[in-house]
Amino acid sequence: MLRAMFLDLQKIVRSRERSLNVIVHNLSGFDGIFLMKIFSGLNAQIIKNDQKLISISVPVENSKGKVIGSLVFKDSLQMLPVSLNALAAVFGTFPKDHFNFELFDKVSASKSGLALTLLGSPLLEDLKRYNKKDCIILYKVWHDFQILIYNVFGLNINIFSTLSGLAFGIFRAKFLKDKNIKINVTTNEIDKTIRPGYTGGHVDIYKPHGFNL
Question: Could you give the CA distance from residue 8 to residue 89 in angstroms, rounded to a whole number?
């Protein structure tokens, strides 16, 4: 199912001839694990922070083998760091549904799990409706948040990957009075080079000592 979705998204990029952002809530904790299996060998560019996936960018080629854009999977949890259920309440969308995952796991692990997949039991249909509603909620939340930030600060949230990055962008655009002050933004290449040198809680202790004093 994921591979079919990926192929459909590639078709959208080819028809638009430009990159497409795909928003996933909790990319690191769940969906990213499965997506990485599909992207193996596709020259995907992965951005991480403290072992958490921030985004996965997969280049898309046209029929002539020319890269015309990318599929950029972004973790909305890095921008909106609360549960989807909480976001639904804050942004006033309809609430999440409840689904019995324990029962689904038991059925899938049993011999009837094959029939569940092939024949389409009511439980499987419930799961599809549950996932579809989650996607609609996330779309509405992301859309409303995007409109809010643009109306207040004039910024497009899609050019940022994290909430801290958005906050820094807002500061530079709206609160940095002296525009002559240049604040350098570290590129991904430089960040990869210097990040291994970061340390935390490191303390040097010098104990004086001597001999025959």
Answer: 31
The boundaries of the domain holding residue 62 are 1-78
Q: Tell me the CA distances in angstroms from 168 to 26, 60, 151, one per residue in order.
A: 22, 30, 17
Does residue 181 form part of some domain? Answer: no
pTM of the model: 0.74
Instruction: For strands 67-75 and 20-24, give the pairing.
Output: parallel
Q: Taking the CB of residue 59, how many other CB atoms lie within 10 A of it?
A: 15
> Tens digits of per-residue pLDDT, 131-163?
899 999 999 999 999 999 999 999 999 988 889
Is the residue at 38 inside a domain?
yes
CA distance 197 to 202: 12
- Beta strands of the chain (E only): which ranges? 20-24, 45-49, 52-61, 67-75
| 192, pLDDT greater than 60 | yes
How many domains is the chain partitioned into structurally? 1
Contacts of 20 (CB under 8 A, 6+ apart): 9, 12, 13, 69, 70, 71, 72
Q: Residue 111: what pLDDT?
A: 52
Strand ranges for 138-200 from DSSP E: none
C-alpha separations of 14 from 62, 69, 74 in Å: 6, 8, 20
The CA distance from 56 to 34, in Å, is 12
Which two structure tokens, joined as six digits, stand for 159?
A: 């050019």
pLDDT at 118: 44
